Amino acid sequence: MKLTVLALGALLTVAAHGATLYDTLGPANSYQLSGSTIGGVYDQVVADLFEPTVDGKISQITLAMGHTSGQNLYRLDIVANNGEEGPTGANLFTLDFSLTGYLTTLNLSNGPSLQAGGLYWMVISGAGEGTQGAWWGNSGGFRGTTGWHNTQPGFSANAVNWHLNGDSYLNAFRVSSGTTPQDPLATPEPSTALLAGPALLLLGWLRRRRS
Length: 211
Fold this sequence. Notes:
single chain, six-stranded antiparallel beta sheet, globular, seven-stranded antiparallel beta sheet, alpha+beta
């Protein structure tokens, strides 16, 4: 029985694999050491519009950012697009985090599920006392829609005036899903085939032994 469970577990492992939902990082996670200011004197908030290429639940986000001054505390929001109003749709996810270097990877246990072809905003803001940093630009020439706003005293959260640019260099980030179902018609990678082969042989041996 234990051998059967192990074999089935190997097959289930083969049936799922990670996927990249969206990516503007270059080869070897490269990026441009210039970009958008986050936080600072004017408490600037920056957003990039992105469109996932496959369905998946976000399990990991990698950001190319640098910390400049103040408390090392930032906030990430995934927001549904709201047409010409920009990042004012439903807030799907919020996470406060600290930078661990120029490339920070965030592992999510309760990330939102995104749909291929849907439009979402990656919104980054300062969340600490005097937080100021930079969201580095991409090095691959990726262009798209970006937005920013400065939050001023007396402005309510619902009255934020987003400034949108429909043809701008995007910032550098990657959105990944850890368990995306594999296309049953897809050709498995060699490592996947190596895992599946022994599992199938083991199941066959167990059936012959029982008969």
